[in-house]
Design goal:
The protein is an all-alpha fold. It has three helices and no strands.
Amino acid sequence: MKSTNKFSLAGIPLGIVGIILALVFPLASYACCVPGLIYSLGNKKKSRKRSVGGTVLNIVGLSLAAINSAIAVVIAVRDWQKGK
């Protein structure tokens, strides 16, 4: 039986959940993607394919969350200025 590294495997589901949450609730996405990215980057030597997959998923999740957060800030500032 092959030994698997659980931390490198954890980066993939955290990245998938992070992408889904990035579209709905970006703050929760940061909480999923940052640890997933750390797990994926920390275990590149043991399982390269899983590590690269987890890294890509988490970077995409963080990027979507950042874009969604920036859009929310722009909308909030614009609405706040209209109310003045």
